[in-house]
């Protein structure tokens, strides 16, 4: 212990100077306490002798006495002395190490607490590592979920768009039952407001299916839609034909009741035109679709043919009666008859064109054929008058001039919008002009052969210039 104490003091002194320097007064107090501690009395040797002569006992002796007690063995030989000395030395070491033992116990307690704290920190770090792993796992799963959600959203958008496209395409096929149900309805009328939109939708479905023949069941659906279109067009056709026939029958009954002489412009045109606005609106829709659809073109042609047939049946007797009346009125004046007949036919053609435009928006070649048929009545009535009967050359020349100047040249002076009104009758007038010209050429050739080539002059015919002098002077 004597060997370790100087080293300990040096370590303590070094610690005081470097690690925990003390103030000057504090250092002086430590030195005084150290000096006082060094002055320790020697322990009392228990020899049994009374040491009353020593009045002052040291604190160590008192403590020694307290520790040994009254029963401490006496030192009577060397063996006892060494035992006592060893015990004293042990007590000194214990007393010197007691402070260090306390400090060591405190350090051990601190060490245990630090170990516990370190264990808790280790556990906390482990939990933090687990939380970090969980966080990384949750973050990874969240990213995966986010990516999956974005992919699902894209798939949803794509599927929604695909569903919309599919629904838009299927709408054309789904319209079949709805259109069929409406066309089979007994209350459906071609003049109702829903008929034209229904027909438009039917055309759209047919056009779409025709443009996509590769779709499933396109051919059966196209055939059924075509059947529905034919049914709808038949409804239109029946309505127009029945309306025209009813109008013709109504006017014919009035003509028969009142007599043909009382048939007027109002009866043949005004009353016949009563149903024109509705028919024209309906036929306008048909004519608008006709360029791209043979079915609509056939419908318009059928309606026009019915119109021509009804107008021919209605006007035929009236035109024949009018031509007969003109022939009775001008039976002695062929040019007047032809002039009056041409004027009548021109008015008839103009009126028929106007009436036709009240029913249809665009012209049809059949109108010209109908008017040509009506004009043929005049041609057939007048032709025998200048063909079979004996007519003078100057009358035939007047007829040619009349047809060329008043009919054919007037047609060439009419504007582009009015040319069609006189085109049909112009063909008949052209035919009459050719007939009259042929007749004129025939008569001129006959006159030349009989009066010029076979002419044999007599002396009177050759008496010139006396014949000229004897000729009467022309009237002023």
Features of this protein?
476 residues; 78% helix; single chain; mainly alpha; 14 helices; 0% strand
Instruction: Report the sheet with the most strands, covering strand number, pairing sense and barrel closure.
Output: none
Instruction: Report the β-strand fraction as a percent range.
Output: under 5%
Low-confidence stretches: 50-61, 413-418
**Cα end-to-end separation:** 192 Å
Rg over CA atoms: 71 Å
Order of helices and strands: HHHHHHHHHHHHHH
Q: Mean of the pLDDT scores?
A: 80
Shape: rod-shaped
What is the strand tally?
A: 0
| Overall SS class | mainly alpha
Helix fraction bin:
over 70%
Question: Helical region count?
Answer: 14
Report on the structure:
By secondary structure, the protein is an all-alpha fold. It has helices at residues 4-19, 24-38, 59-68, 78-183, 195-211, 218-258, 265-270, 276-289, 294-329, 334-359, 365-387, 393-413, 419-453, 466-470. Helix 8 packs across helix 9 (294-329) and helix 10 packs parallel to helix 12 (393-413). It is rod-shaped, with a radius of gyration of 71 Å.
């Amino acid at each position: 212990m004597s060997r370790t104490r100087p080293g300990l003091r040096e370590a303590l002194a070094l610690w005081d100077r470097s690690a925990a320097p003390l103030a000057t007064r504090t250092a002086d107090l430590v030195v005084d306490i150290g000096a006082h501690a060094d002055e320790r009395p020697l322990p009392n040797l228990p020899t049994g002798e009374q040491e009353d002569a020593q009045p002052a006992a040291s604190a160590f002796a008192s403590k020694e006495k307290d520790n040994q007690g009254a029963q401490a063995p006496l030192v009577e030989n060397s063996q006892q002395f060494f035992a006592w000395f060893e015990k004293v030395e042990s007590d000194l070491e214990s007393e010197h190490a007691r402070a260090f033992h306390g400090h060591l116990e405190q350090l051990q307690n601190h060490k245990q607490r630090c170990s516990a704290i370190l264990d808790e920190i280790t556990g906390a770090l482990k939990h933090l590592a687990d939380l970090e792993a969980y966080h990384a796992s949750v973050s990874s799963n969240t990213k995966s979920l986010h990516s999956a959600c974005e992919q699902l959203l894209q798939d949803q958008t794509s599927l929604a768009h695909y569903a919309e496209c599919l629904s838009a395409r299927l709408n054309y096929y789904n319209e079949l039952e709805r259109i069929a149900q409406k066309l089979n309805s007994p209350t459906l009328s071609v003049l109702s407001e829903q008929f034209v939109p229904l027909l438009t939708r039917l055309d759209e479905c047919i056009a779409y299916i025709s443009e996509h023949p590769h779709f499933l069941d396109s051919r059966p659906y196209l055939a059924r839609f075509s059947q529905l279109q034919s049914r709808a067009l038949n409804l239109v056709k029946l309505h127009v034909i029945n309306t025209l026939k009813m109008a013709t029958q109504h006017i014919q009954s009035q003509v028969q009741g009142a007599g043909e002489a009382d048939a007027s412009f109002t009866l043949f045109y005004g009353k016949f035109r009563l149903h024109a606005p509705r028919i024209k609106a309906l036929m306008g829709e048909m004519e608008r679709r006709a360029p791209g659809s043979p079915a609509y073109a056939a419908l318009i042609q059928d309606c026009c043919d019915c119109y021509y047939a009804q107008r021919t049946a209605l006007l035929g007797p009236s035109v024949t009666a009018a031509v007969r009346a003109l022939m009775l009125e001008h039976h002695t004046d062929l040019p007047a008859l032809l002039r009056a007949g041409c004027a009548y036919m021109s008015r008839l053609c103009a009126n028929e064109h106007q009436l036709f435009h009240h029913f249809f928006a665009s012209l049809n070649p059949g109108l010209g054929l109908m008017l040509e048929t009506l004009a043929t009545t005049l041609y057939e009535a007048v032709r025998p008058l200048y063909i079979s009967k004996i007519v003078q050359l100057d009358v035939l020349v007047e007829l040619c001039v009349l047809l060329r100047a008043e009919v054919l040249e007037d047609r060439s002076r009419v504007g582009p919008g009015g040319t069609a009104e006189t085109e049909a009758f112009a063909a008949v007038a052209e035919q009459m002009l050719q007939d009259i010209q042929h007749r004129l050429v025939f008569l001129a050739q006959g006159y030349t052969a009989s009066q010029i080539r076979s002419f044999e002059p007599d002396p009177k015919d050759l008496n010139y210039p006396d014949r000229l002098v004897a000729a009467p002077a022309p009237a002023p």
